[in-house]
Design brief:
Blueprint lengths: L6 H14 L3 H5 L3 H4 L3 H33 L4 H53 L3 H6 L2 H43 L1 H47 L2 H6 L3 H53 L5 H43 L22 E8 L10 E8 L4 E5 L6 H8 L7 E6 L2 E2 L5 H6 L1 E4 L10 H6 L7 H10 L3 H5 L18 H15 L3 E5 L7 H15 L3 E5 L3 H4 L4 E6 L2 E6 L1 H7 L2 H12 L9
Parallel strand pairs: 3-8, 3-9, 6-7, 7-8
Antiparallel strand pairs: 1-2, 1-4, 4-5, 9-10
Length: 614
């Protein structure tokens, strides 16, 4: 099953593919900003690379001298002395080759690891700054695949393949140049034959690059499925869907395997063609060299030198054919990573941000004729001409049926999205004119689906204010009635809570989230059905803590339980994206409108221990 990719990525993806169609080098140019900070180390690596290549190219010359001067000398004493000198020279060349190769390996590997780490950090940091619009249509599994698989491919090329390619290019060109110098007539013919090898190679290379990109996309599809299912294990197992999900994942991996198989087949044909054609052309040149020795036109040492240069050239071409395939795969990986970096969030800091005035006794809020549609549902208006004023220190509850637009008010206030029309203000300043950090720094959020990270209880609460002391964290936990169950954990506040807080109940996770917001101590508190996961006893405790937290600050509450609604200064009823009623609890019940119906339903169900969620 293919996974749809994000529309947010389609525009940059199309542009990147168009550029990549002109050649894999163009795709890899996206790595230049990450290589530029390490220019000095790259120059050193190139010097070591050239030293290793030069040492290799000197070996045949030393071998020719050994044969012609060390073995052919007539006097035995002179022969022994000449052999010692030539073998000593060969050892020096070999030692130089070893030192230069080791230095090149270390430097290039360091650059590869460093660039990969920088690239991974840049992509991850960029993705974290994307608005929720990006994540509406982009699956986290695809992002994770790019952060892991694709960056690993880039690391392989930058830290290994590229260096090998450059080294063998220098060696191959050097060997070819020496062969042309020593046998110009024959090698000119061979060079003409090698040019014919390049044309089919370019055709196969483009096919390999396209299939490499497709293969990486299929792997990302499988990762997306796995991430989605693993995050919903209780649901999958609760509905006994393990066999079906296993089959779905297997189909995706089979598609990835089939694409990889086709890529490997084309790449194998490319490698076989390059090596065979090159080897055949060079054998022709070598045959001509043996004829020259037999004719007395060159010496045996000259022929030996030619043989070694032929071996160097053939091996260089063989390595380059492998490296070329790696470069094509890395080109596809780079395209996918550059797509993520090219994605631009529609929500960003303004060019000239304004400062927020000091908040005294809470923040003031204003929604002025706000209209909004989610990007994934542009034809459906979630909010229509909503106007709402909230005074500092006021507690306003927002109720209404599901889909009425309650949570959307929070999303616009936090600037997860920007309003399609109208203005949202915080303390008199339009939120579009505020830095995101300043805006969100004034807001504490307790979501309905509380998030608990895979770390300790202490660090989970401290997430609300990273510089808080342990004593302040514990005080917030006590205020949220979370201290007792945390203290009862095996290691207390140092206990790890597991991935997504699997070691806690729903109510315990909710109290962790409430403690986190209390620790932040913001002038504006947003409660999105903050007691929805609590039992009756826990709700009474947390409700008392929330009421204490509401003092001296503005609170906006999405509520479905009357305990919160009845104590609110004002209740706003949303329906179909519009405000249909406003007032206090008693007033709205007396009117007999939508709120009265919701309240009547809840009163009917509460004795049975249930509640209707708005």
């Amino acid at each position: 099953m293919a996974v749809d990719s994000s529309p947010a990525l389609r525009a940059p993806r199309a542009a990147t593919r168009a550029a990549a169609a002109k050649g894999s080098a163009r795709s890899l140019s996206g790595l230049l900003p990450f290589l530029r900070p390490y220019r000095g180390r790259i120059v050193l690596a190139l010097l070591f690379l050239l030293g290793a290549a030069a040492s290799t190219l000197v070996l045949p010359v030393a071998l020719r001298s050994l044969i012609d001067q060390g073995l052919v000398a007539a006097d035995p004493g002179q022969r022994v002395m000449a052999l010692r000198e030539h073998f000593g020279a060969l050892f020096v060349v070999g030692a130089a080759l070893g030192v230069f190769s080791a230095a090149r390996f270390y430097m290039v590997t360091w650059i590869g690891e460093r660039v990969t780490a920088d690239l991974r950090n840049a992509v991850y940091g960029h993705v974290l700054r994307q608005s929720p619009e990006f994540f509406e249509t982009t699956q986290t599994g695809e992002v994770l695949s790019r952060l892991t698989t694709d960056t690993t491919l880039v690391q392989t090329v930058v830290g290994s393949s590229l260096s090998m390619g450059l080294r063998n290019s220098v060696m191959g060109v050097g060997a070819l140049a020496m062969l042309i110098v020593t046998n110009p007539y024959v090698m000119t013919q061979v060079l003409g034959i090698l040019v014919l090898v390049v044309l089919p190679s370019l055709y196969f290379g483009r096919r390999v690059r396209r299939l490499s990109r497709a293969s990486q996309d299929r792997v990302a599809d499988a990762s997306a499925i796995a991430a989605e299912v693993l995050n919903a294990i209780p649901v999958v197992q609760g509905f006994a869907q393990e066999p079906q999900e296993t089959q779905r994942f297997a189909r995706s991996t089979e598609e990835a395997f089939d694409t990889a198989r086709r890529r490997t087949a084309v790449r194998s044909v490319l490698v076989a063609f390059i090596i065979s054609a090159t080897f055949g052309a060079l054998l022709w040149g070598l045959y001509q060299g043996t004829q020259a020795v037999l004719g007395g036109r060159i010496t045996a040492g000259h022929l030996g030198q030619t043989v070694v240069y032929v071996i160097i050239l053939v091996s260089s071409v063989a390595v380059l054919s492998e490296v070329y395939g790696d470069l094509l795969r890395a080109a596809g990986a780079t395209e996918r990573l550059m797509e993520l970096l090219a994605a631009r969030s529609p929500v960003a800091d303004p060019a000239m941000p304004r400062a927020l005035p000091a908040a005294r006794g809470g923040s003031a809020l204003a929604f002025e004729q706000v209209g909004f549609s989610y990007p994934s549902r542009p034809q459906h208006a979630t909010l229509r001409d909503v106007s709402l004023q909230v005074q500092p220190g006021e507690t306003v509850a927002v109720v209404g049926p599901s889909g009425a637009g309650k949570s959307t008010l929070f999303h616009l206030l936090l600037r997860f999205y920007d309003a399609g029309s109208g203005v949202v203000r915080l303390d008199g300043v339009p939120v579009r004119e505020l830095k995101l950090a300043d805006l969100r720094g004034r807001i504490g959020l307790v979501p309905q689906d509380s998030t608990v990270f895979s770390t300790t209880a202490m660090e989970n609460i401290r997430y609300g204010r990273p510089d808080a002391s342990d004593a302040e964290v514990m005080a917030a936990a006590r205020a949220a009635f979370a201290h007792d169950f945390i203290a009862a954990l095996p290691e207390g506040y140092a206990s790890h809570l597991g991935e997504r807080g699997v070691r806690l109940s729903g109510g315990q996770r909710q109290r962790i989230a409430i403690a986190r917001a209390m620790l932040k101590n913001p002038p504006l508190l947003l409660l999105d059905e903050a007691t929805s996961a609590l039992d009756a006893e826990s709700e009474r405790m947390v409700q008392a803590a929330l009421e204490a937290a509401m003092k001296h600050r503005t609170t906006l509450v999405i509520a479905h339980r009357l305990a919160t609604v009845q104590r609110a200064d004002r209740i706003v009823v949303l329906d179909g994206g519009r405000i249909v009623e406003t007032g206090r609890h008693a007033e709205l019940v007396a009117r007999g409108g939508l709120y009265a119906r919701l309240a009547a339903m809840q009163f009917d169900l509460e004795p049975a221990g249930e509640a209707v969620r708005s």
